[in-house]
Each structure stands twice: as structure tokens, then as C-alpha cells.
Amino acid sequence: MTDRFLFDGPADAPITILLAHGAGAPMDSASMTAAAQALAAEGFRVARFEFAYMAARRDGQRKPPPRAETLKPEYVDAVRTLGARGPLVIGGKSMGGRVASMIADELHAAGAVAGLLCLGYPFHPPDKPESLRTAHLAGLQTPALICQGTRDEFGTRAEVETYSLSGRIRLLWLEDGDHDLKPRKKLSGFSAADHLRTMAATVKQWAEQLGR
Of 12, 44, 68, 93, whose Cβ has the fewest other Cβ atoms within 10 Å? Predict the structure, then answer.
């Protein structure tokens, strides 16, 4: 770990993935750590970082999450500071992926990023399916992969399949997964580890096609 980033995976990996956290949990939460380790096991260099409001909580400051739009400059700065060699995929969990999706096209057009990875995209707030956060996704030009649990309260499969999303977006549906991609094993037959392996293997297959 550096002052800014938490790393997993080989330093000489051909592809780097930069991940931001969700609104309520830090970059070293159990779900973020599990996802990063699964991706690292597939040969990616994974870098995690925190927005300033979350970092301030480590010093005892009570900082609520700001509006996602206001975090765009912080994400752009993280990309610049990381200075990844080779292809870079940006994204994150929930809000982190949403912020990345807002800056992806500008950075992709500039050749700074190769793709976008969202782990549990917050298509709408829980219990507010009418409050969609999808307007910018309809015309997205950056190759994107969204990994979503079928029962995610921020966007179930039944809901998301009715949305108008860019053809550049690929969706991986993880059966019975919640917002952390975790299934109920007794009901689905899958474990959280199963879904993380599927997620990481799919990301590898998708990322190896970027730029071709």
C-alpha cells in the first residue's frame, strides 16, 4: 500500500484496473478486498483508492458521501497520479463505478483508459426504481462491463433489462447475487467465491479484447 493506493496482483501485469469504493464502505472493505483479490488471481494489477471524504473518516471525521458528480475530478486525479503503464481499466463498486462511468468517455477519447468495469452498478436508489441513474449510459462510447447480481436492490435483472443502455455495455448477471454480488447458497447453489471467480474470469476474457 502507498499513501494513495492499495495494490493487489503482479506489478508487471499487462492490464491495470483502478477501483473506487462505494458510498458507505472504504477501499479495504471485505467486498472490495475480495473482488480485488479475485481479479489479481486472474493476473491483473489492481489499484484501489479512496475519495477524500472516505479517507477523512479514518481520522475520525464524520463525512457523508457527496453527490457522485462532485467526485469526478478526484477520480481523474487518481488516474493521473497512478500513471499506469499499459492499458488501464477504470471502475469500482457501486458509487465508485458510477463516478468512473461519468468520466470514462472523456478519458477513453484521450487514450487514457481502455475500458470501464462496474461491480454492482447503482442503477437507482433502493426502493426508488423511478430515480434512474442511466441517462449517460445510453450513449456511452467506452467499452464497459457491468457485473450485477440478479437481485441487486439497486437494479435487478428484470429492471435493468428494460433500460436503454449503450451497445458498448456488456452485462454479466450473477444468479441471486445482491449488491455485493453475494448469492444465497441454499437457494442458488452458488457461493460468494463462485461468483467472484466467475466475475474475474469474465473480466479477463473481456479485457483481453479491448482495443482489438
Answer: 12
Q: 81-91: b or e for each residue (b if 16 or more CB lie within 10 Å)?
A: ebebeebbbbb
**DSSP-derived secondary structure for 143-177:** -EEEEEETT-TT--HHHHTTS---TTEEEEEETT-
| Residue-wise pLDDT tens digits, 21-43 | 999 999 999 999 999 999 999 99
Cell output for 85: 503503464
Grid cell 473506487 — which residue? Answer: 20
Euclidean distance between CA atoms 127 and 155, whole angstroms: 10
Check: CB of residue 166 under 8 Å from CB of residue 144: yes
HSE (CB half, 13 Å, CA atoms) of 97? 24
Ramachandran category for residue 83: left, alpha or beta (phi over 0 → left; psi -120 to 50 → alpha): left
What does pTM read for this prediction? 0.96
